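Entry type: protein chain
Record version: 2
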Amino acid sequence: TAGTLTNQVVDYNQGNSYTNSTGIFTAPVAGLYHCYATVRVGSNNGLNQAAIQKNASLSGANVIAFWETDTNTGTAVHFSMTGYAKCAVGDTIRLQIVTGNVQFDSNDSWGVTFIG
């Protein structure tokens, strides 16, 4: 349901910039970051929205990637989104479930990669 994804299985966290208990990645250096997510629709009966957000904001350039569907047809299962964020030291990135029900398990993933 709506909220930031937290306490997921973490496979790789070089530099410990991701805090699993909060679901927040904090940029350790200024630069360009690639952000991606693959998750699953939890309910095929209504509106579902997810966003990768910079600095916990759903406005303007702080939305790195956004996904939305009204799945009353029952056909949506998995979805992916990707985007890039120019970050200063200390900027944060999170995967936010905005509306609806989205599942996240061992078949799904999200991450942030420093590009330079």
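Comment: The first strand starts at residue 3 and ends at 4.
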